[in-house]
Amino acid sequence: MNDTTNATHNDNIGHNIRHRLDMLNQKISEARKEQPNLARDEVTLIAVSKTFDAPAIIPFIEAGVKNFGENRVQEAMQKWTPLKQTYPDCILHLIGPLQRNKVKQAVALFDVIHSVDRPQLLQPLKNAMRDQNRDLPVLIQVNISDEPQKSGIAVQDLADFITLATQTYQMNVIGLMCIPNLQHDPSPYFAHLYQLAKQHDLPHLSMGMSNDFETAIRFGASYIRVGSLLFGQRDNKEENN
Fold this sequence. Notes:
The protein is α/β, with parallel strands linked by helices. The protein has helices at about 5-35, 55-60, 75-85, 105-110, 120-130, 160-170, 185-200, 215-220, 230, and strands spanning about 45-50, 65-70, 90-95, 110-115, 135-140, 170-180, 205, 225.
């Protein structure tokens, strides 16, 4: 491409992205109005950039998106280490499973961790945050639909886990996260998570993806994790987007 053609191409990409964001923000606004007694005054859009490389992400940053979500620590390190140097205002959320051997890297790179899903993570997280002088906000992932193949704290174990995380390990627990059963209506699961957060006086809920974020907003989501509606469909369909 020559310079003129390249500039036109970039303008078209930017226009397309702004159009997607405008449509998404309109849907967010409409969903908040449908159940105002539960919906938040502010809903944070997390653009799920997993599997997409830096050239696909940069136009979203330049369009004003600040919050991005990644599933895998190693993948995120490769693209976000340089991106965060260039765009230091970006906020990076870990929304996928965290392995114990990746905790140090996760604490160094991410700004919020949504997927604290088992007791074995608490000590490594505490150690890494202490060593790196970081106090990251974390959310507890709840297995809200009680599916054996899914990560997350069982509902019946949640109260004890919150006590362990906040009192024994002094974690900055700000809320709960869930991925409901994708084959069922998500409304009961989102309503249940809302009640659990209220019961434990936790201010934030990370719930809702591209296919159900409007429902999540109606039930009090403060973070929605949207990927395919922004970036397009991925070759390999994964959860959390």
